[in-house]
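Researcher: Next entry in the queue.
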Amino acid sequence: MLNPNAHMTKTDWLSQTKKMYYILYALIIVLFGVIWFLNYDSLKQTGEPYKLIEPQSTAGMVLQYAAIVYTLLSIPGALYGFKRVCTKLAKMEDEDLKYDTYYAYANLRMSLVALAAGLPLIVYMLLGAYKPMIWLAAIGAVALVFTKPSAAKTEEELRPQDNDLKY
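Model: Structure for this entry, 167 residues:
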């Protein structure tokens, strides 16, 4: 059973979050490898890329727009939203709760950004190597780099900011 009074230490949270980060990146790389293999195999056999949906069909257009909208909204939303959460967390007194909440939101941010990298790859495969989706996946993969957890980054983000500076 979960014990709400048993908190993980900062180092335990950090190591668990780093594991999740590398697992998400590995899954994106594996997904890209599977898609590359399917397209390579299909091109070798039929001369056409692996395709389940025509890109110009209604379903294809909906998938394209959904991937574009999700990627372009989730990346800035996850990164900026996390920054806003951190400014609120920095003011908390309870250190255990502060770090528990911080790492829960850090994992959520990584998941949203990783999905922004993986979703366009899936749409790329479904639409038969539709190239703009690769660019969206690359944007998501680069954005995932900015979510990499570290102890120094955690301390910096949770340090209270003095916004009342007078010149």
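Model: The mean pLDDT is 86.
Researcher: Noted, moving on.
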